């Protein structure tokens, strides 16, 4: 696949604009889903997706073919997203509630995913504070390593770990009731602490 994409890029750089269409068709869904989860808005994600591919087309010569083309595109999408966020007034994330510190031992997020309750999961992700949502999407959805996410975000590794921990705990609490409703039995869930957190900065 990577060889084919290098060939398409070479054709684009030679002046064949139509060769960009297969690249758009292949990667637009992934870019859109990334941006939708980051922004929580389909309309904004659509606009940023278009901006991403326009920016990519203009800077095709900068892709050397050494990494995956899709990853390069997602990097452009993330930079456009962060630029858009900087233009907005910053809203500080609210402190974690006591409920999050007592999240369930069971994993309601995984349960809901297995039960294919995608809409509720997407809504819960969109409701996360932006700083926590960014890390969750990059690591748990896009599959970046902690170090890659730290590099994309420009923050220390410990900050990524701390934000991800907070995001997962918040999602567990948000989806707990939904998970309980889908249980075949009504056995009361065990409760444990989510207080064992990774070392690192807390933001």
Polypeptide structure, described:
The chain is mainly α. It has 2 domains: 2-86, RNA polymerase sigma factor, region 2, helix turn helix motif (Rna Polymerase Sigma Factor, Chain: A, Orthogonal Bundle); 98-182, Arc Repressor Mutant, subunit A (Orthogonal Bundle). Helix content is 65%, strand content 0%. It contains 11 helices and no strands. It has helices at residues 2-13, 20-39, 42-58, 69-86, 98-101, 108-114, 118-126, 130-141, 146-153, 157-174, 176-182. The radius of gyration is 19 Å and the shape is elongated. The protein starts with a helix and ends in a 21-residue tail after the last helix.
The end-to-end span amounts to 39 Å
In the predicted model, the low-confidence regions spanning at least 5 consecutive residues are: 91-105
Give a count of the beta strands, DSSP E runs of length 2 or more: 0
- For this structure, the CATH topology of the largest domain is Rna Polymerase Sigma Factor, Chain: A
Average pLDDT figure: 76
CATH class value of the largest domain: Mainly Alpha
For the sheet with most strands, the description reads: none
Structural class: mainly alpha
Please name the CATH architecture of the largest domain: Orthogonal Bundle
What's the helical proportion of residues?
55-70%
- The structural domain count equals 2
Superfamily (CATH H level) name of the largest domain: RNA polymerase sigma factor, region 2, helix turn helix motif
| Outline | elongated
Bin the strand percentage. under 5%
Order of SSEs? HHHHHHHHHHH
What is Rg?
A: 19 Å
Helix count? Answer: 11
């Amino acid at each position: 696949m990577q060889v084919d994409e290098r060939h398409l890029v070479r054709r684009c750089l030679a002046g064949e604009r139509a060769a960009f269409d297969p690249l758009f068709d292949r990667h637009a869904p992934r870019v859109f889903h990334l941006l939708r989860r980051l922004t929580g808005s389909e309309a904004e994600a659509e606009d940023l997706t278009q901006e991403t591919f326009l920016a990519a087309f203009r800077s095709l010569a900068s892709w050397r073919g050494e990494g995956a083309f899709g990853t390069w595109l997602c990097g452009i999408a993330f930079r456009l997203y962060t630029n858009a966020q900087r233009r907005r007034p910053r809203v500080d994330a609210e402190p974690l509630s006591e409920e999050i510190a007592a999240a369930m031992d069971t994993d309601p997020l995984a349960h809901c995913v297995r039960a294919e309750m995608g809409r509720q999961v997407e809504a819960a992700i969109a409701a996360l504070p932006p700083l926590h949502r960014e890390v969750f999407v990059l690591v748990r959805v896009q599959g970046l390593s902690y170090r890659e996410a730290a590099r994309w975000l420009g923050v220390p590794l410990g900050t990524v770990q701390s934000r991800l921990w907070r995001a997962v705990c918040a999602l567990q609490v948000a989806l707990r009731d939904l998970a309980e409703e889908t249980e075949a039995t009504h056995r009361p869930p065990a409760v444990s602490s989510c207080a064992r957190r990774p070392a690192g900065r807390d933001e």
